[in-house]
Write a structure and sequence with these properties.
The complex is a heterotrimer of chains A (about 425), B (about 800) and C (about 170). With about 425 residues, chain A is an alpha/beta fold. Helices cover about 45% and strands about 15% of the residues of chain A. The model of chain B has no long low-confidence stretch (mean pLDDT about 95). Chains A and C meet through helix 7, strand 3, strand 5, strand 9 and helix 13 of A and helix 3, helix 5, helix 6 and strand 4 of C. Bound molecules: flavin mononucleotide, iron/sulfur cluster and FE2/S2 (inorganic) cluster.
């Protein structure tokens, strides 16, 4: 099947404006601006069943419909922070198929009547930002951005904004703070961005992949999109496959594809033909799926099915963990990540990740006792449900499921 | 009144205004939800996670919008997670459980997390005894820590954020109250968080460090002992302290304060003031005070305190009895007849000033107010009306600030005007140079020094700014003395008063004229009919002078000279001054910390202060000394009971009519609730139990006919070539008698300075920080050059009371 | 020389991205600009950025402290930031880092004697399928180097050395 998002894999040079145009590029945007009302655009996206690809899976059209039309101006922000360990799909989209993404941003902007949109890239994507700036300039030149587009009174400006090394800026309100020139710390919600966003104005924040779906949904219709995937998870998803597989990389597949197909058919199987011990379906934030039964691998990858395994599909960054990996090591890694990235604003996350990292380190170093393992579990659970944003919660997922599902790995390394 | 919402908190029905946060609603009902980051004066952030509670909301039928009923009561749906009481607003029918097992577990968890990195140094911590963390740990925390002590984060414990405020990094719980106070309330974002995660730390990068005149307030609202003042740290334990209600005597705002005292071995077993704390008065200073008010009190305990009456014999000042001293003064005053002159300052209480004025009225003398600002008689005519409260000003009210830099002259007014502007009041800032208030102004008017009156008159004319002013419902004008002498400021006052009066902005709450005076009770003096004189030297020369609470000899060499040529000088003061040194009789007065009395703030609020420490030596309260002198002159003035003096004053000065000490001691319930056992809520600020004072009536409000005298404004002198126009400005930390003794302020006080536009400095060939010599109007001296690119090029600013005696605009030469 | 006089065009262009009443938004791009030459942010640079966007120096420092790609201390001309996060570690990143340290004769966090390279361990760079991976942060911005070996890394370092001459 031809790619819908990673189209550069099928169409060489689609990152060039004329090539993109020749392949139907910007027709959807032009059609929306000249022939559709903003609400109609939102409706198409609503009907397509598109859900956010940033992790939470929130229905995209519904989010757009929440935009507060009593408060102006409106903004659209594309979330290109892509910092979840194991996630590298947005970067490939932007590098390979930039115009489709930018057209998606443009359509979203029209749908919510925003005249300015920002693309927030993680600071490490420095070169990519320069590349996107060029692409934006080309679009301006070609009349796809700027004043009075296609002879209407709709105007749109697009800008990139670089972060500077902070995972938390992927969280949408922290991201907005960051654009505002502040420390990237999450805000209390509610209010949510569609009513109180950038500069306190109604704002739609969407993931890069989410937005990149939009031009083709508009071009081919909601039904076309809905017919792919599963009833609960419409369309296609890019699975970032990493860890102990032979062929790591991005694989664009319909929702509902099984883990087995992803890992073995596309990913070439596990390195050295070892057994899969665990799967992290959503990067470092995931629960650890225990693969003690081959049947687990036959679970379809869609939001609902993955939940039956006691995990969330999240951003679908599938990290494969083989039988040689001990979970005390793995959990120590994830906890270190979260301790490093905790923004420090709320107590449970700031102190909890610090405390957990002492415990996981002690356990991993063999300096701990069994009581420390129990305490680690208690600390993680004590954090759950109490943090200001989801980062704190994320940090506990591998810990809790690691201890609950792989307790042996921890008890093996502690002192008697 | 806003809409009322009824909800249930811990089975109790509570009704509060719409928009109230759950934590505040609980507090109003007497239910304490523990908080750390939440402070009712700050925007909610929900970051410490201390206030976790269970919240249930009634289920509504989607179609009808009505509550779904279950067993005769609305069906309540609880959220799966605990929620923060400090960020959720009340909703009709909401059910809040603050002490359920789940909520208690959440609160305990937060305390345990906070304690993992908190040091165990309570026994040596200044906050010990009034520490919210300590209290809440007792109430809600776990019994013991499961965190290994050796893994505690080790951090610096003595970090100066500036020379006034210290940080203990280990004690900080990252609630950001201090940062948010500085950002939101003070508007000085000079402290912030560095780094992130567990390494998050408070830092200040300003120069000087923690460059804000409000810095001390952060130590009050800090819920742990992380922030302490240089003045108080390691000074005393909170439980040893006694609290005495007082009023700050440093500026016309009249902040309500509490003097904390303790018997001190270091002071030979004497009871001394250990610290000055804000006392809540939401109509005056809310729960804040400025750093000058917090730290400058040291003069009252200064080594140079006068303790005994002295009289000059053979050129030397020798101890005499009170009887002898007052008699000597009285004889000379009587002898002088029409040449008897009283010169008193606004440092004195209403009672003191009243007795002085009465003495002048009942003899042949004249009473002058020692002030550099004129026009005060107008503030009792069209001064702000009863009920005026900056906190109530918002959309519909215009506030004009002319010729004053409130941040330096009356810091708490700066803060309250800023807040009014943020609430929607139209703020018009008129000043020849930039001030910190400009940022919040709707209109900034830059006039040339000398054009004050003209620019005030413009407000009454059509145009963008004039329209904004004329169309408002209420208008208040604060006028000051930036760049002005007595006649200049009097002219401005008259122009402002006329504008207000002509447009009906008088005699009502939140309307009228406010003078930004130099001293705490100048307003009281004006109410009692004191006058000011531009050429004081002329007034003093050859006269029998009774100087009370003022030091003209130090302030101005010309006045020193005039005093030398005086017939007789009696100087009454708290401290030895240059004036007492040349006096014939010296009368030691009690400091405000030692006695009782009232002061009238610039907002015309009479407020009581109370004794806090024992009297120094044989010092007496000023009104009593005056009464004793008067008796020798055959004039009977009340000299024993200060409240009786006030009663007589209230009976004879119309604006005080109906007031008495009991009335001034009245309090009313205030929000936020502070200072009780639950210090975590509002900080260590004191609750007001001893009186919020009462506002005076304005002539305009009493229905008296108001006629505004027209005052001609003389044009300022024209500087010649290679001269600049020097103008006086006011600085918060100056070398004044009541400031300089506080050594910890010396760095902020600095040296005499000459403030120039960078271009002016360039053409003079001088640089910032360079010492230069200046001369003007017979005065000459050294000053350090400072630059300010918002001032006109041909002008040089000279701060008052910094060693260069400048009274009004004059041409100046730089050498 | 000051930012505003040295890069007037860039400063103006950066400011133009944001509503004039929200020029504080420009603080992050301006910090990148200010960091370009020295590789870290001097006090003067922070003061200047503060002035351009009309916030306090403390506010600027708080931002510099929060984000890991801003530095307030001078280190090597290039910061070599190797991802050792979980996905890369599963593909040999820790071993790569160890070997690299051995080859360079420095520990993580240290700078080579010639001042050219500071070696740092960083969190996920969104290149997990191309481990071992690192980025270089230097005068020419941030660049990715993927599917690296120690040999290729040493070649890169040699090239950097030749291209830039000795680091200052
Ligand atoms: C700690 C944290 C990190 C996140 N990081 C990202 C990210 O890197 N990229 C992203 O698109 N969304 C991220 N999100 C999700 C965003 O907050 C937000 O839900 C998303 O951008 C919405 O877009 P969508 O509806 O298109 O998914 C993160 C959320 C959290 C709590
Ligand atoms: S959960 Fe962590 S990242 Fe989120 S606000 Fe709290 S401290 Fe910051
Ligand atoms: S989170 Fe509510 S008081 Fe801090």
């Amino acid at each position: 099947m031809a790619h819908i998002l990673l189209r550069h894999r099928d169409i060489p040079d689609i990152h060039r404006l004329e090539v993109y145009k020749k392949n139907g590029g910007f027709a959807a945007f032009k059609n929306a601006v000249t022939n559709m009302k903003p609400a109609e655009v939102t409706d198409v996206v609503k009907n397509s069943g598109l859900r956010g690809r940033g992790g939470a899976g929130f229905p995209t059209g519904l989010k757009w419909s929440f935009i507060d039309n009593k408060n102006w101006p409106h903004y659209v922000v594309a979330n290109a922070d892509e910092s979840e360990p194991g996630t590298f799909k947005d970067r490939e989209i932007m590098e390979g198929n930039p115009f489709q993404f930018l057209e998606g941003v443009a359509i979203a902007s029209y749908a919510v009547s925003a005249n300015v949109a920002y693309v927030y890239l993680r600071g490490e994507f420095w070169q990519l930002a320069e590349f996107l700036d060029e692409k934006i300039a080309e679009m301006e030149e070609a009349g796809y951005l700027g004043k009075n587009l296609f002879g209407t009174d709709y105007s749109l400006k697009l800008y990139t904004h670089l972060g500077a090394g902070a995972y938390i800026c992927g969280e949408e309100t922290a991201l907005l703070e960051s654009i505002e020139g502040k420390r990237g710390q999450p805000r209390v919600r509610p209010p949510f961005p569609p009513s109180y966003g950038l500069y306190g104005k109604p704002t739609i924040v969407n993931n890069v992949e989410t937005l990149t779906n939009v031009p083709l949904i508009l071009a081919n219709g909601a039904e076309w999109y809905k017919n792919m995937g599963t009833p609960d998870s419409a369309g296609v998803k890019i699975f970032s496959l990493s860890g102990r597989v032979r062929k790591p990389g991005n694989y664009e597949l319909p929702f509902g594809t099984t883990f087995r197909e992803l890992i073995f058919t596309h990913g070439g199987g596990v390195q050295d033909s070892r057994k899969v011990k665990a799967i992290m379906p959503a990067g470092a934030s995931s629960s650890l799926i225990l693969v003690d039964d081959e049947k687990v691998l036959d679970t379809p990858m869609d939001y609902a099915s993955v939940r039956t395994l006691g995990a969330d599909l999240g951003s679908a960054s599938v990290i494969v963990v083989d039988e040689t990996v001990s979970m005390d090591w793995l959990v120590n890694k994830t906890v270190h990540f979260f301790r490093h990235e905790s923004c420090g604003k709320c107590t449970p996350c700031r102190e909890g990740t610090y405390w957990m990292s002492h415990l996981t380190e002690r356990i991993h170093d063999g300096r701990a006792t069994k009581a420390d393992v129990d305490l680690l579990l208690i600390v993680a659970k004590q954090m759950q449900g109490k943090c200001l944003c989801a980062l704190g919660e994320f940090s506990t997922m591998a810990v809790v499921t690691g201890i609950e599902r792989f307790r042996n790995d921890f008890e093996k390394v502690v002192k008697a | 009144m806003s809409k009322q919402i009824t909800l249930t908190i811990d089975r109790r029905q509570v009704t509060v205004p719409e928009g109230t946060l759950v934590a505040d609603a609980a507090k109003m009902a007497g239910i304490d939800i523990p908080v750390f980051c939440h402070h009712p004066k700050l925007e909610p952030v929900g970051m410490c996670r201390m206030c976790l509670v269970e919240i249930g909301r009634p289920v509504r039928d989607r179609a009808t919008g009505q509550f779904v009923m279950e067993n005769g009561a609305p069906k309540i749906q609880f959220m799966p997670k605990l929620e923060t009481a400090c960020t959720n607003k009340v909703e009709e029918g909401m059910v809040v459980l603050t002490q359920s097992e789940k909520a208690a577990e959440g609160q305990k968890g937060t305390i345990e997390f906070l304690l993992t990195s908190h040091p165990l140094d309570c026994p040596v911590c200044d906050k010990g005894g009034e520490c919210p963390l300590q209290n809440l740990t007792m109430a809600h925390g776990p019994g013991k820590s499961r965190f290994i002590f050796d893994e505690k984060m080790r951090l610096d414990k003595m970090v100066p954020l500036g020379e006034l405020i210290w940080l203990d990094r280990e004690r900080c719980i990252q609630c950001a109250r201090c940062i948010r106070f500085q950002d939101e309330i003070a508007g000085d974002s000079v402290i912030g968080f560095d780094d992130r995660g567990r390494r998050t730390q408070i830092v200040s990068f300003s120069e000087p460090g923690f460059d804000s005149v409000f810095s001390g307030n952060t130590t009050d609202i800090c819920p742990v002992g992380a922030l302490t003042t240089t003045d108080f740290r390691f000074g005393a334990r909170p439980w040893e302290l006694e609290a005495h209600a007082s009023i700050c005597t440093q500026c016309p705002v009249g902040c309500n304060t509490t003097l904390n005292t303790r018997r001190e071995a270091k002071a030979g077993g004497k009871i001394v003031v250990k610290r000055v704390m804000p006392r809540q008065n939401e109509e005056v200073n809310e729960i804040w005070i400025c750093d000058k008010g917090r730290f400058a009190y040291h003069y009252t305990e200064g080594k140079k305190r006068l303790t005994r009456p002295l009289a000059r014999k053979d050129g030397k000042l020798l101890r005499v009895s009170w009887e002898a001293a007052t008699k000597l003064a009285a004889e000379n005053f009587l002898k002088a007849k029409k040449n008897f002159v009283i010169l008193a300052s606004g440092r004195l209480s209403n009672e003191d000033l009243f007795n002085l004025k009465s003495l002048a009225d009942h003899s042949e003398g004249r009473a002058y107010l020692y002030s550099h600002i004129g026009g005060g008689e107008l503030t009792s005519l069209v001064g702000v009306g009863e009920g005026t409260n900056f906190a109530k000003m918002g959309a519909g009210t215009t506030i004009v600030v002319i010729a004053s830099n409130l941040y330096e002259e009356a810091p708490i007014w700066h803060l309250r005007v800023k807040q009014a502007a943020e609430r929607g009041a139209t703020l018009i800032v008129m000043n020849p140079r930039g001030t910190k208030l400009d940022r919040y102004a709707s209109f900034v008017v830059r006039y040339a020094y000398g054009d004050e009156v003209k620019s005030v008159q413009e407000l009454g004319k059509k145009g963008r700014i004039g329209d904004a002013f004329l169309k408002s419902e209420n208008a208040v004008i604060l006028y000051g003395s930036e760049g002005l002498g007595i006649s200049g400021s009097a002219a401005v006052a008259s122009a402002c008063a006329k504008l207000l009066n002509d447009n009906g902005f008088v005699g009502k709450p939140n309307n009228g004229l406010i003078g930004v005076w130099g001293r705490a009770n100048d307003q009281g003096a004006w109410e009692m009919g004191f006058e000011v004189e531009e050429d004081l030297a002329k007034v003093l020369k050859g006269k029998a002078v009774y100087i009370v609470g003022a030091d003209p000899a130090a302030d101005d060499p010309k006045l020193a000279k005039a005093l030398e040529g005086a017939e007789f000088v009696a100087a009454q003061d708290v401290m030895e001054t240059a004036t007492t040194e040349i006096a014939d009789v010296v009368l030691p007065a009690q400091a405000f910390t030692e006695r009782e009395g009232t002061l009238t703030s610039g907002e015309r609020r009479a407020q009581r202060f109370y004794p806090a420490v024992p009297v120094t030596g044989d010092a007496k309260p000023d009104f009593a000394i005056t009464s004793q002198i008067a008796r020798h002159m055959g004039v009977i003035l009340e000299g024993t009971s200060v409240s009786a003096v006030f009663d007589i004053l209230a009976a004879s000065v119309k604006s005080f009519e109906g007031l008495n000490y009991a009335k001034l001691a009245e309090v009313k319930p205030q929000w936020p609730i502070v200072g009780r056992g639950d210090l975590y809520y509002g900080g260590t600020t004191y609750e007001n139990t001893q009186g919020m004072g009462a506002q005076l009536s304005a002539a305009a409000a009493r229905g008296e006919k108001v006629s505004i005298p027209r005052v001609q404004r003389e044009a300022p002198p024209r500087p010649k070539e290679n001269e600049l126009l020097a103008v006086p400005v006011t600085k918060l930390y100056d070398r004044g008698t009541t400031v300089l003794p506080a050594e910890l302020l010396h760095e902020r006080i600095g040296d005499a300075s000459l403030i120039l536009h960078p271009d002016a400095a360039k053409s003079l060939g001088v640089e910032a920080g360079q010492a230069v010599n200046v001369s003007f109007n017979g005065v000459s001296g050294g000053a350090v050059v400072k630059l300010d690119d918002t001032i006109p090029v041909g002008v040089a600013l000279i701060p008052r009371s910094m060693g260069l005696a400048i009274r009004e605009p004059v041409p100046l030469k730089v050498k | 020389m000051s930012l505003a006089t040295k890069y007037p065009k860039e400063v103006k262009q950066i400011l133009s991205k944001y509503p004039p009443e929200h020029k504080r938004s420009a603080v992050m791009p301006l910090l990148y600009l200010a960091q370009r030459e020295e590789g870290y942010l001097t006090k003067t640079a922070m003061q200047e950025v503060a002035k351009i966007v009309d916030i306090t120096e403390t506010d600027v420092a708080a931002i510099v402290g929060f984000y890991t790609l801003y530095h307030d201390k001078k280190e090597g001309k290039y910061r070599m930031q190797v991802c050792t996060d979980l996905p890369c570690a599963l593909r040999g990143a820790d071993q790569f880092m160890e070997n690299l340290c051995a080859n360079l004769g420095i520990k993580v966090g240290e700078t080579t004697e010639d001042g050219l390279i500071t070696l740092e361990a960083v969190m996920c760079l969104a290149a997990c399928d191309k481990a071992p991976v690192f980025q270089t942060q230097g005068p020419d911005g941030i660049k990715y180097h993927e599917n690296m070996t120690v040999d290729r890394t040493m070649e890169l370092i040699a090239a950097l050395k030749n291209a830039g001459g000795e680091a200052k």
